[in-house]
Amino acid sequence: MRTDFFRSFLGIFIAAAFMLPVSVEATAAEPIDFNRDVRPILIQHCTSCHGGVKQAGDVSFVYADFVLPPDGWIVEPGDPDASVLIERITTDDPDSRMPPPDEHPEPLPAEKVATLTRWIAEGAKWGDLWSMAPLVTDAKLPDHDFNWARESLDEFVSAGVVANALTHSPEAPPAQWLRRASFDLTGLPPTIDQIDAFLKKCVDAKSASEVDQVYAAEVDRLLANPSYGQRWASLWMDLARYADSRGFEKDPHRDMWPYRDWLIDAFNRDMPYDEFTIKQLAGDLLPDPTANDLIATAFHRNTQTNTEGGTDDEEFRVAAIVDRVNTTWTVWQATTFGCVQCHSHPYDPIEHDEYYRCMALFDNSLDADLDDDYPTLKVPADRSQIEDAIAAQRQHEIIRNERNEFGRSFADSIAWKSITPESASSTGGQLEIVGDHVQTKSGTFPVGVEYTVDFAAGSATETKSPITALRIEIARLSDDPTTGPEKGSVLSELDASLVAADGTKTPVKFADVFVDSLTGPADPRDALKGNDRGVGEFPKLNATRWAVFVLAEPLQIPDTVTLQLVMRQKASTSGNIATPVRRFAWSASDDIRWIQRSTNDELRRLDKALAKSNSRVNKIEGGLLPVMTARPNSAKRETRTFTRGNWMDRGDPVEPGIPNVFVKADETLAINDRLQFARWLVSTENPLAARVWANRIWAQLFGRGLVETQEDFGSSGLPPSDPMLLDHIANRLQSDHQWHLKPLLRELVLSSTYRQDNEVTAEKHAKDPSNWHYARGPRTRLSAEMIRDQAIKTSGLIDHQVGGPSVMPPQPDGVWQAVYSGASWENATDAQRYRQALYTYWRRTSPYPSFLTFDSPTRDLCSARRIDTNTPLQALVTLNDPVYQECSHALADRSLTISHGSIEHAIERMYRSVTGQFPTDLESAELMSLYRDLCDPSSTAQAADSKVDSAAMSIVANTILNLDKALTK
Amino acid sequence: MSYPNESIRDGVARWATRRHFIKDCSLGLAGMWMGASATGQAGAMESTGHGARGVHFPPRAKRVIFLHMAGAPSQLELFDYKPDLQSLDGKDCPASFLAGKRFAFIQGVPKMLGPQFPFKQCGESGAWVSDRLPEFQSVADKVCFIKSMQTTQFNHAPAQLLLHTGNQNLGSASCGAWTMYGLGSENENLPGFIVLVSGGKTPSAGKSVWGSGFLPSVHQGVQCRSKGDPVLYLSNPDDVSRQQRRRALDSIERINRATFEESGDPEVLTRISQYEMAFRMQTHATDAFDLSQETAATHEAYGTQPGQESFANNCLLARRLAERDVRFIQLFHWGWDSHGAGAAEALNAGFTDRCNEVDRPMTALLKDLEQRGLLEDTLVVWGGEFGRTPMRENRGGKEMKLIGRDHNPGGFTMWLAGGGVKPGISFGETDEIGYEAVRDKVSPHDLHATLLHTLGIDHKRLTYFTQGLPQRLSNVTQPSRVVEEILS
Question: What is the value of ipTM here, to two decimals?
Answer without folding.
Answer: 0.89
